[in-house]
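Researcher: Next sequence.
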Amino acid sequence: MSGADALMDSLRRHGVDTIFGYPGGAILPIYDALYKAEKKGWVKHFLVRHEQGGTHAADGYARATGKVGVCFGTSGPGATNLVTGIATAQMDSVPMVVVTGQVPRPAIGTDAFQETDIFGITLPIVKHSWVVRDPADIASVVAQAFLIAASGRPGPVLIDIPKDVGQEEFDYLPIEPGSIWPAGFKRPLDVDDSSIEDALELILQAKSPLLYVGGGAISSGVHEVLKQFAERHQIPVTTTLMGKGAFDERHPLSVGMLGMHGTAYANFAVTECDLLIALGARFDDRVTGKLDTFAPRAKIIHFEIDPAEVCKNRNVNVAVLGDLSISLKRLLDLSLKKNQQPISGDWLSRINNWKKNYPLMVPHPEGKIYPQEVLIAIRDIMPDSYITTDVGQHQMWAAQYLLNGPRKWISSAGLGTMGFGMPAAMGVQAAYPNEKVICIAGDASILMNIQELGTISQYGLPIKVVIVNNHWQGMVRQWQESFYEERYSASEMLKGMPDFIRLANSFGIQGVMISKRDNFKEELGKALNSPEPMIIDVHVRREENCYPMVPPGKSNAQMVGLPEIS
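Model: Next structure:
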């Protein structure tokens, strides 16, 4: 068997049925093996129009399914085009296996045509990486790659395969998943029951506790246990951008997202709480604001699978290390043995007053369409859809107003990658061809990977791309207005803006432009319910800002843009 055939067989044994990628000279032996695998019917390859689109599609697939996403790219520029997508997955802890072609072994180090040291380039942004020098190592490398990508705190790994390794014939010995452990590989730490007991003791003593839930709660699938625990102890729940969907935001205990563009009541709650219970969250700067003012009155419990995150940004009183699906269940089981009643009634009353006095504002519906209205209409028309986003104001409005279930909110949080949303939606739709998938995009960010309309068209992916179009780099403009005395340097996108509908039509995709309030919701609903791929270009008020907002260097309680109350 050739090295390339061995790679494909190893991927099959690890349950891979979907691959995103783009071919090129160095990876052609692998694409030849892929051709034979597709003929056998066990795998489907999606040809993206840019390698970055392939990484984001594999990322979206992984976030939606919980499985490891897989993408292919060739050597040189093909490999370097993957870097942004790998970094995006690394920042958001997304399991992904990236396979790159490389120049033949004798040419490595000679500056051969389309040679780059992708192994070295990606070292800071992967969990692990390999350059395969012997085809007999392929089965072992693939088994290790999937184990490392999905275990502990998930993340991307890279396998670089020289062209001649893919071509070389050898005696193939398959390796089954889970039958090999990499040298030095550390399993996640076992949960220490004494730390669970210490955590529960603090929880039972707290008068104003708050659950602060991050992406780790999504990765570990603890939404049901989280709901049971929050209800038992009557503890309000706030989520990060990555944690959206871990707790039902329609639930009375939900205070929505916290941080720079979080709800006022979430930010007031984290400032006033006396106990902060962090579940799979990493105290990111967009969450904490000025770090020394974050939860200043609170003792802190940190449930975390990655020991490196504990006390990295904030010292904690109790650290509970290990898999959150195990530790939170043990905490719930231990608490069920206690008869103590919740003591947070006054605290919940305070939070309800904040909700009443500082709601997310819905502008009065007159004149030009408000961007907030677009998100509220999508929420009402398609309440159970999968949502992907690009990055900017529209992302924050989507986070504020959309209410998503677990794994149905997919957004680049840590890296803030413009152009993420549409290719990520391709990955979600490839995983769930019969589900509704909506990409919320901005008119600037959509242009970063607009070429993926070709992929959507080729495979008939019925994705709905809603462009919240204000003809600006909206978040850049907002910052320039607020902090740079309205010097709008290189942020207006009106000149050179394409006609998105005609552009979509050129790819064979239908579209509709909505600019007037008359029948706005009806037009949007009709487009969202179309069985075909659709570009929906909604022109909104140009100068609308995203509030609340925590200015840089300020505490979460020092928000601007709050409604005035008597």
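Model: The chain has three domains: 3-167, 193-357, 371-539. The CA atoms of residues 15 and 536 lie 35 Å apart.
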